[in-house]
């Protein structure tokens, strides 16, 4: 899994690209505080090489919690900036800091 950050000079925005290698998966989405944990808001597109990829514009100078939803199962990114325990789910969420 990979996270790429591209800061824009003209706006207080960072383009964040999420990449998830999941050849066998049918669907992958990224859910988090930036899309109110909506499982359908940020679906990633499957590329020919089997990687799912998508870009989200996020306000910089902020932190966001997120997880991947791979065929209905939640997964964390090992390249997240940090992790935060979520008492509701009883698991850790990934944190990205911009």
TrEMBL record:
Single annotated GO MF: hydrolase activity, hydrolyzing O-glycosyl compounds
InterPro entries tied to this protein: Glyco_hydro_13_N, Ig-like_fold, Ig_E-set
Any single Pfam family the record assigns to this protein: CBM_48
A GO biological-process term: carbohydrate metabolic process
Location of the Glycoside hydrolase family 13 N-terminal domain: 15-84
Name of protein: Carbohydrate-binding module 48 (Isoamylase N-terminal domain)
């Amino acid at each position: 899994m990979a996270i790429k950050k591209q800061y824009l000079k003209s706006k207080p925005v960072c383009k964040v690209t999420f990449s998830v290698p999941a050849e066998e998966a049918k669907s992958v989405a990224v859910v988090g505080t930036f899309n109110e944990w909506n499982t359908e808001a940020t679906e990633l597109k499957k590329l020919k090489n089997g990687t799912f990829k998508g870009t989200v514009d996020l306000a910089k100078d902020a932190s966001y919690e997120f997880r991947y939803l791979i065929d209905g199962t939640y997964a964390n990114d090992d390249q997240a900036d940090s992790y935060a325990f979520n008492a509701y789910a009883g698991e850790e969420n990934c944190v990205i800091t911009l």
